[in-house]
Request: fold
Amino acid sequence: MARRFREIVPDGVITDPAERETYACDGLTYHAAVPALVVLPRTAEQVAAVVRECVAEGVPYVARGSGTGLSGGALPRTDGVLIVTARMRRIIEIDVANQRAVVEPGVTNLAVTKAAAPFGYYYAPDPSSQQVCSIGGNVAENSGGAHCLKYGFTVNHVTGCEIVTPDGEIVQIGGKTAESPGYDLLGAFVGSEGTLGITTKITVKLTRAPQAVKTLLAGFGSTDEAGTAVSEIIGAGIVPAAVEMMDALAIEAAEAAVACGYPEGAGAVLIVELDGAHAAVEHEFAEVERVCRASGAFEIRIAADDHQRGLIWKGRKSAFAAVGRISPAYIVQDGVVPRTALSGVLHRIGELARDSGIRVANVFHAGDGNLHPLVLFDDGVEGEGARAEEVSGAILDLCIEHGGSITGEHGVGVDKSKHMPRMFTEEDLDTMQLVRCAFDARSLCNPGKVFPTPRLCGEAPGVRRGAHPLVESGQAEQF
Amino acid sequence: MNTVGSADNRALVDALTKTGVEIRDGGDADAVAGVRPAYVALPVTAEETAAVMRAADEHDLAVVARGAGTKLDWGIAPYRADVVLDLSRMREVLEHAAGDLVVRVEAGCPLDDLRAVLAEKDQRLALDAPVPGATVGGTLATATSGPLRLAYGTARDLLIGVTMVRADGVLASSGGRVVKNVAGYDLGKLLTGSLGTLGVIVSATFRLHPVPSRRAYVRAPVSGPDRAHAATQAVLGAQAVPSAVEYERGARGGGAAVTVLLEGGADVPARAADVAALLGGGAETRDEPPAGFGAYPVGPDGTLIKLIAPVADLPYVLTALDAAAEATGLDPAVRGSSGVGVLYAGLPGDAAPDDVGAFLAALRGALASRDGSAVVLRAGPEVRDVVGMWGPVAGLGLMRRIKARFDPDHRLAPGRFAGGI
Reply:
């Protein structure tokens, strides 16, 4: 196969074992598998030809962007081909009048915003890995970010995708228009974690950069107080651009790593950001400040400029990496609970930590109940890793118990496929599988992800009782 | 009026009756785009709905789901409709979690009822109902939307969870009751706009938004396509954060205007003043919507065409409309979201079908070069018989394969959708 792939992509086939090893995992490093072959195509036609070759040989394949995913969605197969889109990184067009950008899948998230910035626009979804993560990966994972509370996820900002289907066909779904006739294929494709095909060109919405952005940092005695403030803000009819919370342990880690200088002695800090028209932001910001004080904030800082806003965000954005300063190893969990259940769930997480002796730092998108508990452990201590895994799993149980989700933005991938049956019934999963089989009847496109057990699609069902008689007899075509 | 594929025999009646669901004979008033069903089933629960579908599966019956029936003649007439599955008795608001800004509601619930429940907590589903009386399920199945889509998206963007009955009578759900959730495929998006051809929606969960305390509608006349375009682009490029940017024009090109909706609190007057300045002379600001705001440009008996094109192609689309009108002698009224690139053109129901066909062909020819489309949402039987309702549809092969997996026997509203689906 390597030989045939070289005919398709002459300078983009990696067979060397040491080089292949660098692709063994994505951001979720404890799942690793060295791919049998790595291909780095430059065009959609090359991707399609590679896919067709895999189909002809019955070889599974996995697509990978920047490899920053946190659920093992881009985990290769040792018996398969890894198709890396990193060389497809042209920004094809910034179309201001249509508020769209057209980009190749390897373009980084932040690069889109940078290209649009001179025109007063930006790309709204902002996963914390936005400096390196690719738009193709964002499409696969339906990535979110701190600001999706107000602006929505990738699926709300992608209007078109050129995709290579699991049959190796190039199909354009959507484009610069707000919608397209027919079934919402784009809605099914975005967030399918690379299991329904590979996107080779993406059209995204550009959002007008807001006239005003105002950011506040509030220190509270406890997460309860901070949680009350969040509820009150939402209850007041305000939709902030972002509402982020960190607990004491997460603050401690951030201080150790980046000396962010958050209010001393805080049991929790809240970052609230408002954006929009100047008049609206001013009006609502006063209310947010009032609510924070009424809920017990003992210190409130308001960013006076971009530099100060950067300082406020610095601690939050560094939090995942920062826990490395206070713990030899950690698991980043991603679960969601209804916002109103936050306080109760945080208490339960505290109990879990106490009972197990495993520390848990909490960093989360409080506005939409998306928790990122960081489960800390020492991998040098016998059995601690396993106990941390247990705590991490128990946190997901809490999310499900409270009517939440096992993943808010990291995806299911290989990491959480085993948890899917706890959130969905067998019938739910079977029904999702119908979509899978419609796109990929051979199950060669990123197999083993999302769904707990491999399922066969069986025969593509024929049209047993047929289409409209007129259509069938060739007398008419219905559109 | 014809009944296609009717299957009124004893065994069948027994099977339907055995589900315990109230069944009655179908009448002319139950016809789906002219196809009269033999029976109407009136389930009160999701389980009952599933039981009807299982009976239909066993006895080879074609089923069309109905909410309030306000858009039952949308799409192509199904080639079979043995049973109308009437969901109007499933109208409960199951859970309004105000603190979470989420609501779970049965499919048969009228949007007006839902609005009233949500308003008690100063919340709303930010989705317009262009056809009065529509239900949640019907709104999803037809993917209707209105002016607010500029700021809030359409049904597919607000829907966070769905429960459906499959063609084989199996109940299945996707999504959940939290806004942020990427677990599993999003079946809700596939069902939205599927005209009931992939499954029967029995309940849905939506994200909600606060009801703004103030609104302002800034309306300015625009003299022609270029002025409409300039006004739209000026507002989109400014910092006023509009909730809607709408265009309208009456028959004979009369009364063309752009209306901008601003929502918020005490800040609204200042933002409205900014917009009024952008729109220039003749701009008027009111607290109440102008007449017909968000409504379709034609009544329920007319031909309703949805025109989709990139936002910046607005003058091109309006000019193409004029050219098509001139060539055919038809006189479309036009209204829609110029800020989004979705307009609706309405033609009177008594327009000659061949003229409507020529009008559409001209429009489609013009739009094709701009990646645009002109879909006939609704037309009377005479027009439906001679025009292609959908026009070219990209990805039809994938759509057919999805249909084949979800409904291999073509039991759900067969033939109603694009490509004979």
Q: What stands out?
A: Chain A touches chain B through 102 residues (CB under 8 Å). Residues 460-479 of chain A have pLDDT under 50 and may be disordered. Residues 224 and 343 of chain A are 6 Å apart (CA to CA). DSSP finds 17 helices and 19 strands in chain A.
